[in-house]
User: Fold this.
Amino acid sequence: MDLPVNDSGRIEDFFPTLRILDTQGHVINEQARPEISNDELKELMRRMVYTRVWDQRALKLNRQGRLGFYAPVAGQEASMLASAFLMDQEDWLLPSYRDIPQLVWHGLPLYKAFLYSRGHFEGGQYPEELKAVMPQIIIAAQCTQAAGIALGLKKRGKKQVAFCYFGDGATSQGDFYEGMNFAGAYRAPAIFICQNNRFAISVPVEKQTAAASLAQKAVAAGIRGIQVDGMDPLAVYAATKKAREHAIAGDGPTLIETLTYRYGPHTMAGDDPTRYRTDELTGEWEKRDPLIRFRFYLERLGLWSQEDEEQTAEQARTDVDKALKQADRVSKQNVTDLLGFMFEKPTQNIQEQLDAYSAREGDQR
Amino acid sequence: MAVKMSYSDAINDAIRFAMRKDESVVLIGEDVAGGAEVDHLQDEGAWGGVFGVTKGIVEEFGRDRVIDTPIAESGYMGAAVSAAVTGLRPISELMFNDFIGSCLDEVMNQAAKFHYMFGGKAKVPLTIRTIDGAGFNAAAQHSQSLYALFTHIPGLKVVIPSNPYDMKGLLLSAIFDDDPVIVFEDKTLYGMKGEVGEGFYTLPFGKAEIKRSGKDLTIVGLGKQVYTALKAADQLAKKGFETEVIDPRTLSPLDEDTIIKSVQKTGRLIIVDEAYPRCSAATDIAAIVGDKAFDYLDAPIKRVTAPHAPVPFSPPLEKLYMPTPEKIIEAFREMVGEHVFSAL
Assistant:
C-alpha cells in the first residue's frame, strides 16, 4: 500500500514572527507598518509607561499586604495594551487573571481592580457601560465564552468584536480548541490573543506541546493564525488591527500568538521564577523590552520626551494612591452580602440563612 | 514504630511505599514532579507540586513513573482512567478539586461506570488525589470541598482523611483498591504533624473513628471540621456536657453503624461540614440517621455548615463563612432549648 504522506512541509514555516520594530526601535519591516496617528502612538506609550509604574506599585502593595491576589504584568505591556488599543468602547473583553491592565484601560475604575484583588464584591460590580467579563481563573474557560459572546454580537448585527486573552498554558486545554473551532464554524467575530510568555507557571512551552508554534494551532480550527513579536507594540497593533477588520467583515476569528515574557513571578502567591528560569533568559528578554524600543521609536519621531515620561509616571503614582484610598473607604463585607448575591430573589433556604446571619451580624454591631 | 510527620509528608511517604511495592503504580498530573521538565533544573531536583507534597518522588522513581502533564485535566484524567483499566495503578492528581469541572466526564461517566458496564469484568484501580478545603484565602474556585459531589456518584469511593496517620493508611488502601477512589487532601492540614506508622500499613474504608466519647451529644465532623467539633466538645465539657465526636474518615463507603450506635446512646446529633449545605454529606448523614435512628432522637438533627454560597476570597469574610465552635454551640442551644442550655 502506498499512501500519500506529506512530510516535507513544516507548518511552522507558514507562521513567521511578525516584527516591525527592532529592539532599538528601528522600523525593520516598512511594508507591515500599520497606519496609526501620532496622537495614538503617544497614547499607547503613555498607557504602557503608566501600567509599568502601576504594576511596580502593585507589587509593593501586595508585599505590604494591602493588595491580595496579583499577577505581575511587566514585560507584557505591548502584548496587552497594543492589542487592546484596537478595542472599540463597545467591543467585549474576556481577560485572564493577568489581564487587569486591559480591563482598566477598557473602563474598569482602578479602585475596583484593587477591590477585586482584595476579594471585595464591589471589585466584580462593573460599570454598566463596561463590556467585559471577570478575569478568568479557570484556565482557557474564557475561550468558549468568547465564541458565545462573538456569536451573540453577530446574531444581533453588531459590528463589534470579542477580545479573548489567555496564556500559552491555556492552549493545552480542550476549551481552547473548542472555543476557536466553534467561533470559526460560525465565523463569529472573535480575536483569540495567546500571550505566550513561555512558561505555564514553571513548565516551558516546549514541554507543553509538540507544535513548533502556538499560532499554527489555528489551522486545525480553520481560522487565521499569526505569530507576532509580543515585545513590539507596532507588530501587536498591526496584527490585531487586521484581525479586527476580518472579524467585522464577517471573515471569522483570528488566533494571535504574541511572543512575550513576564519579568516577575507567575503570581505573588509564592512561585519563585529564579528556580525555573535562568537569569540569562530573563536578561535576554529584558533587552527586548517593549517600553525601551517604543521609547526609542517615539523619541526619534519627536513624540516622546523625558518630561512626558516623568509626567506619566507621576500621574500613575497619584492615581494609584487615590484609587487605594477609595478602595479603603469601601465598607466591609458580611456573610449576608454573599447570600444576597446568590439569586435575583432569595430562594427559601437562602432567605432562612439570610435571616439567621442578619441576626448574628446584628449582635456583632 | 511510629514516627512524627506532617500530613503532607504522610502523603509523600504513602506514595513512595506504594511505588516501591508495585511497579504498576505511577503518579500523573500537573506539576507532580515540578520543574523536572526544565532542563537546567534536572540535577537540582524538583519541587513536587503546587504545595510541594510530592517533592523528591521523581528523583527516586524517574520520569517514566512521575509524569508532569500539560494543563489539560480532561486529557490526563482520561489517560489515567484508561491506563488503570489496562493494567496500571495510576495516582492521578487533580490539583484542586474545583478543577473537576474540566474533567468530570472522565471521572463520573468513565472511571465510575466501567466496572458496572463491563458486567464486573473491567477493573479501574485508579486513585485520584485532590486538594480541597477553605480557610486558605484561595477564593471561590480554589477552596471548595466537593466530596459530596463524588459521594453522589455510584461506583466511586470517597476518602476524607483528617490527620497524617489516617492519610497514610487510607491513601495506601486507595492505591491498592481495585476500584476508583478519590482522596481529599485539605490544603490547610498539610503542615499538621502527627504520629504515623513507619512501615507499610492500610486502613479499612467504611470505618469511622470515635475521637472522643460522650453520652449527651454526638457530633460528626467531616475532614478538618472534626477539630472544630472537638473544640466545641471541650467548651461543652466545661458545662458538664459530654460530647461524642466521630470522624467518619470515608464518605463512600460510610460507617453508618458507628454513627447510629452513637446517636442511640446520646439522642442528639450535630454534623459539622464546611461544604455547602444542600445535597451534601451532612444532609445525607442526617437523612440516614433520621431514617434508621428516629426513635432514639431527643431533638432535631442539626447541621453546622457553610452558608449556601461560594467561598469568599476576603480573609475576614472567609472566617465568618466557616463553621466555628461558637456556631456548633449555638446549634446545640437550639436543640436543647434555652431553659436547658442556660441551666447548664
Summary: Chain A touches chain B at residues 68-69, 118-120, 137-140, 169-170, 172-175, 200-204, 207-209, 275-276, 278, 332-335, 338-339, 341-342, 349-350, 353, 357 (CB under 8 Å). The mean pLDDT of chain A is 95. Chain A has two domains: 11-332, 334-365. The first strand of chain A starts at residue 17 and ends at 18.
